[in-house]
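Long-time lurker, first post. I've been practising inverse folding by hand and with some scripts of my own, and I keep getting stuck on stretches where the C-alpha cells seem ambiguous. Below is the full C-alpha cell string for one chain I'm working on. Before anyone asks, I'm not after the true native sequence, just a reasonable design that respects the backbone. If someone could post their per-position residues I'd love to compare against what I wrote down in my notebook.
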C-alpha cells in the first residue's frame, strides 16, 4: 500500500477540501502516514489570503528538494487557493521544479487522473480550471471526527472586498442544492454525528443561485429537523446580509448554537467604504443589538484587519471603540497584506509595517481583557459541552466546546469523547475555560 501526507493551510473550506482529497486518495489505495521518509505522495493544500500563508508553503517546498533527491519516486503535489493565482504557478514552475502535480480548487475530483498522467509521462502536470459553474457531488470526505462535520453549502464569493483574494481563487458564488445537503447531513447523523458546521464564504446569501425560492434560513430550519443532529454552526456570514429572519431563527431553532462570527474588518466608515464592505459601523452595531435582543448571552467573534491602505489614527480609534462597544469574546486579527490583483494592492497609501505592528498590539491590548471579562461571567455555571478529544499534553484532560464555541478543558475519561455533557466552569483564562464534570 502506498502512503501519503496532506499538509493543509488556510480556512475551514480548505480543511474540508483536504478531507475530500484524503477520501479520494484512500480510494486509490493510499494510506495516511506522518513520516515523510516513507511517503509516496505529499500534497500541500495552500492558502493565498495573506503573504505569510504563501511564504510557509514556499519554505516547506524548499525543504522537500532533498527528500525528492533521496526518493525520486515521491510525488509532490500542490493544490488549493495559491494555484488559482498566476503568480504562484509561475514561481513554483520556475523555482520549485521538483513539484510534480499542480491543481486548483475546482478540480479536486480529477486527482486520480492527474496522478495517472504523471506516472505514465513523468512530466509535470498542471491542471487549473479558472471557473467551475457545476458543483461536483460525487466526492465524499474522510472526516477527522465522527461527531462533528464540515458540510459545504456554497462555494465562491461575489463580494469583492477590495483587499481580498478569495473571489479570484474560489470563483463566483454558487449554492449547493438543498437536497444534497440534507441527504449528506442525514447520513452523517446516522453515523453518529452530533454537530454540523455549514461552510461558505458568505452563508447568508445561500440560495441566490438556486432555481427554487429557498434561502439560508429555510436550510437551517430543515437541518434543525434532522434527528440526531444536536448542534448547528455556520461560517462565515457577511454583516450586510444578516437578515431579520436569520436573527429570529436564533430564537426559534433549538439546535442553532449560541455563537455568531461576524467579521467587521474595521470600525471606520471611511475605511469600510474603501474596503467595499457595503455596511456602516452603525448598520453593524444595529445588527449586533438586534441579535442580543434575541440571544442575550450569544458569543460574538469577529475578524479585523489592521493597517488597510490609508488607515489613519482616527480610523483605527474607531475600530478600537467599536471593539469596546460590541465587547467581542474573541477576534481573529490580521495585518493587512498586499494581494496582487486586488484593488487595495494598487492603492498608493500603504501603511508602514512598524505602524501596522504597533496598532496590532494596541488592538490586542483592548480585545484580550474584554474576552477575559466575558469569560469570567461564566464562572460557576454548568454548561453543555461537546467533548472533542484528549489534550495533547495531558491524556487525563479532555477538550470540549460550549454551544458558544468556547474551548473547555476538564478532567475526564476518553470514553466521553463525542458526547454532550454538563461541565461546571471553575476557572477562566483569556482564550479557554477550565471545568469539572458536574
Ligand atoms: N469569507 C469570509 C472570510 C474570508 S478570509 C468573510 O468574508 O468573512 C478570512 C479573513 O481574512 C477575512 O475576514 C479578513 O479579515 C482576512 N483577510 C482577507 N484578506 C486579507 C488581506 N489581504 N490582508 C489581511 N487580512 C485579510
Ligand atoms: Fe473575501 Fe469579502 Fe468574500 Fe469574505 S466576503 S471572502 S472577505 S471578498
Ligand atoms: Fe480559505 Fe485561504 Fe482560500 S482563507 S478560501 S484557503 S485563500
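-- Answer (accepted) --
I ran through it position by position. Result:
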Amino acid at each position: 500500500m502506498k502512503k501519503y501526507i496532506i499538509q493543509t493551510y488556510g480556512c475551514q473550506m480548505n480543511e474540508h477540501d483536504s478531507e475530500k482529497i484524503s477520501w479520494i486518495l484512500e480510494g486509490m489505495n493510499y494510506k495516511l502516514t506522518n513520516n515523510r521518509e516513507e511517503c509516496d505522495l505529499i500534497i500541500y493544500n495552500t492558502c493565498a489570503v495573506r503573504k505569510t500563508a504563501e511564504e510557509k508553503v514556499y519554505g516547506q517546498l524548499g525543504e522537500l528538494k532533498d527528500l525528492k533527491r533521496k526518493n525520486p519516486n515521491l510525488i509532490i503535489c500542490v493544490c488549493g487557493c495559491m494555484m488559482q493565482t498566476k503568480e504562484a504557478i509561475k514561481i513554483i514552475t520556475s523555482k520549485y521544479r521538483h513539484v510534480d502535480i499542480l491543481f486548483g480548487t475546482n478540480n479536486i475530483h480529477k486527482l486520480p487522473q492527474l496522478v495517472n498522467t504523471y506516472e505514465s509521462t513523468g512530466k509535470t502536470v498542471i491542471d487549473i480550471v479558472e471557473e467551475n459553474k457545476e458543483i461536483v457531488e460525487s466526492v465524499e470526505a474522510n472526516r477527522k471526527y465522527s461527531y462533528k462535520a464540515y458540510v459545504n453549502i456554497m462555494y465562491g464569493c461575489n463580494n469583492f472586498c477590495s483587499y481580498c483574494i478569495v473571489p479570484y481563487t474560489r470563483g463566483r458564488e454558487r449554492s449547493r442544492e438543498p437536497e444534497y445537503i440534507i441527504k449528506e447531513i442525514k447520513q452523517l447523523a446516522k453515523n453518529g454525528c452530533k454537530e454540523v458546521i455549514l461552510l461558505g464564504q458568505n452563508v447568508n446569501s445561500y440560495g441566490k443561485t438556486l432555481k427554487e425560492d429557498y434561502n439560508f434560513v429555510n436550510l437551517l430550519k430543515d437541518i434543525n429537523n434532522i434527528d440526531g443532529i444536536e448542534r448547528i454552526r455556520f461560517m462565515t456570514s457577511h454583516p450586510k446580509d444578516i437578515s431579520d429572519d436569520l436573527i429570529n431563527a436564533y430564537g426559534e431553532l433549538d439546535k442553532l448554537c449560541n455563537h455568531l462570527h461576524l467579521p467587521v474588518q474595521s470600525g471606520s466608515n471611511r475605511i469600510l467604504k474603501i474596503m467595499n464592505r457595503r455596511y456602516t459601523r452603525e448598520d453593524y452595531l444595529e445588527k449586533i443589538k438586534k441579535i442580543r435582543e434575541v440571544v442575550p448571552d450569544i458569543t460574538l467573534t469577529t475578524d479585523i484587519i489592521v493597517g488597510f491602505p490609508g488607515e489613519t489614527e482616527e480610523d483605527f480609534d474607531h475600530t478600537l471603540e467599536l471593539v469596546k462597544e460590541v465587547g467581542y469574546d474573541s477576534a481573529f486579527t490580521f495585518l493587512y497584506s498586499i494581494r496582487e490583483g486586488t484593488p487595495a494592492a494598487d492603492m498608493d497609501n500603504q501603511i508602514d509595517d512598524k505602524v501596522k505592528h504597533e496598532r496590532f498590539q494596541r488592538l490586542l491590548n483592548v480585545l484580550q481583557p474584554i474576552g477575559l471579562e466575558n469569560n469570567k461571567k461564566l464562572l460557576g455555571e454548568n454548561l453543555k459541552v461537546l467533548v472533542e478529544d484528549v489534550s495533547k499534553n495531558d491524556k487525563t484532560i479532555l477538550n470540549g466546546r460550549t454551544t458558544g464555541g468556547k474551548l473547555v478543558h476538564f478532567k475526564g475519561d476518553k470514553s466521553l469523547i463525542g458526547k454532550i455533557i454538563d461541565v461546571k466552569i471553575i476557572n477562566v483564562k483569556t482564550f479557554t475555560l477550565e471545568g469539572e464534570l458536574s
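A couple of notes from the structure itself: Residues 49-50, 163-164, 166, 201-202, 236, 238, 263, 265, 303, 305, 334, 336-337, 339 surround S-adenosyl-L-homocysteine (ligand 1) (CB under 6 Å). Residues 109 and 139 are 7 Å apart (CA to CA). Happy to go over any region you disagree with.
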